[in-house]
Design brief:
The chain has 205 residues and is an all-alpha fold. It is built from nine helices and two strands. Helix content is 66%, strand content 2%. A two-stranded antiparallel sheet has the order 1-2. α6 crosses α7.
Length: 205
């Protein structure tokens, strides 16, 4: 397809596509003349993933390029591919400065038997949340979190079920990213609705 068709099918302007080409986020098309090139469905998939990374995840162009380069280097490793796309694997591989609650998080992961890398940003996020709760007089430990973690396991199964049958790495990465980031507000809304329903069941006259 010509760049105009690529723009129409992807919803990305021709100007932005040319910018992505200059920044090496999008590989060049097949030259048909000195000023014309043709693009295929692989370009379309990659362009959609770029949009998801920059628009949905809010990554910078530089970080998006790093993620795409890492994906290209590990297309045969679906587990790593999904981790890089969703941000559950650090590109640097370095662990962030540990929060005092990091030990509690590590103990929870071990008790659950989960395979979560030591540098996973989610470990830091969870530890920071526990520390904040403790500072506000709401101490929580791994025993309190355990039933929540079990519910999260069930959600993860549903999430990964959505990727079954997708053989193209870019398509799987895009679907995982959109389902994770865009579905999170919906899951939070469902939780609020369930809380209201439970409150009505317990307390409403």
């Amino acid at each position: 397809m010509r760049v105009s068709e690529l723009s129409r099918r992807s919803g990305v302007s021709v100007t932005t596509i040319k910018y992505y080409l200059r920044e090496s986020l999008l590989p060049p098309g097949r030259q048909t003349s000195a000023t014309q090139a043709e693009y295929d469905d692989q370009h379309l998939r990659r362009l959609r993933l770029i949009r998801a990374l920059t628009g949905v995840r809010g990554l910078s162009v530089t970080t998006t390029r790093e993620v795409l380069d890492a994906l290209a280097a590990h297309t045969g490793d679906t587990h790593l591919l999904l981790g890089l796309t969703l941000g559950s694997v650090s590109l640097s591989g370095e662990s962030a400065e540990q929060d005092p609650a990091a030990g509690e998080v590590a103990a929870l992961v071990e008790e659950l038997g989960w395979k979560v890398h030591e540098s996973a940003p989610a470990r830091t996020t969870l530890a920071e949340a526990l520390t904040a709760l403790h500072s506000l007089g709401v101490p929580m430990d791994r025993h309190t979190l355990l039933p929540y973690a079990r519910l999260a396991e069930r959600i993860a199964v549903l999430d990964l079920d959505q990727l079954d049958g997708l053989t193209d790495p870019l398509a799987a990465a895009e679907r995982a990213l959109l389902l994770t980031v865009l579905l999170e507000p919906a899951l939070m809304a469902l939780r609020r609705m369930a809380q209201e329903n439970e409150s009505a069941r317990r307390h409403a006259p």
